[in-house]
């Protein structure tokens, strides 16, 4: 009999933070909840089983921010853009608790046509960062059974993203001089 699993079908071989993926024939998978800045730089990342809903990870993700956050004021509020999956009391409470200004599209809200938008879409920034993380082979296919080891690899990949951004900015500034 297998032990150490988080659900009845999970064996001890796969370790923690793995769950049946609801979009991939219930194969075991891991969800990465990520918080990025406006340019796609990863600020926080949390892992869980693929079957865990996003709103259950929101508070943990906000608390996992690795840089010191500026104190939000009325003159300089901090905004948090989320998709429709967070449009529920749990998601709104987590955002309010951490004093962000929420920008959450309502469930059932009609999509705004391209020519009527007042702002540019922001969801692609997070998707692009997840694509950058998926370029690392050890993250795309999870080989580590220990969730702390896998989280360490994902965090290391986030550090590499920041390093590459910094190197690119330094090279651009060096050319301009």
Question: Topology of this protein?
Answer:
Blueprint: E1 19-20, E2 28-36, E3 42-49, H1 54-63, E4 79-82, H2 89-97, E5 101-104, H3 123-134, H4 137-140, H5 147-176
Parallel strand pairs: 4-5
Antiparallel strand pairs: 1-2, 2-3
Helix pairs in contact: 1-2
Global mean pLDDT: 84
Portion of residues in helices?
25-40%
CATH architecture: 2-Layer Sandwich
Q: Classify the oligomer.
A: single chain
- Show unreliable segments: none
Looking at the structure, the CATH topology is Nucleotidyltransferase, domain 5
How big a fraction of the residues is strand?
Answer: 15-25%
Q: Tell me, briefly, the overall form.
A: globular
Number of domains: 1
Sequence of secondary-structure elements:
EEEHEHEHHH
Query: What is the level 1 CATH name?
Result: Alpha Beta
Rounded Rg: 18 Å
**Number of separate strands:** 5
Describe the structure.
The chain has 177 residues and is α+β, with helices and mostly antiparallel strands. It has a single domain (13-176), classed as 2-Layer Sandwich (Nucleotidyltransferase, domain 5). The chain is 37% helix and 15% strand. It has 5 helices and 5 strands. It has helices spanning 54-63, 89-97, 123-134, 137-140, 147-176; strands at 19-20, 28-36, 42-49, 79-82, 101-104. Helix 1 packs parallel to helix 2. The relative contact order is 0.13. The mean pLDDT is 84.
């Amino acid at each position: 009999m297998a032990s150490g699993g988080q659900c009845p079908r999970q064996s001890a071989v796969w370790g923690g933070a793995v769950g049946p993926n609801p979009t991939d024939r219930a194969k075991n998978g891991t969800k990465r909840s990520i918080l990025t800045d406006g340019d796609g730089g990863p600020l926080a990342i949390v892992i869980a089983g693929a079957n865990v809903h996003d709103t259950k990870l929101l508070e943990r993700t906000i608390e996992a921010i690795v840089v010191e956050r500026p104190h939000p004021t009325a003159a300089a509020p901090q905004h948090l853009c989320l998709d429709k999956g967070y449009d529920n009391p749990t998601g709104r409470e987590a955002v309010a608790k951490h004093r962000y200004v929420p920008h959450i599209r309502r469930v059932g809200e009609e999509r705004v046509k391209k020519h009527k938008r007042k702002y540019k879409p922001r969801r692609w920034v997070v998707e692009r960062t997840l694509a950058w993380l998926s370029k690392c082979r050890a993250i795309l296919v999870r080989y580590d059974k220990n969730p702390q080891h896998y989280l360490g690899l994902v965090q290391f990949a986030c550090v590499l993203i920041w390093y590459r951004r910094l190197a690119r900015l330094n090279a651009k500034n060096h050319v301009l001089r």
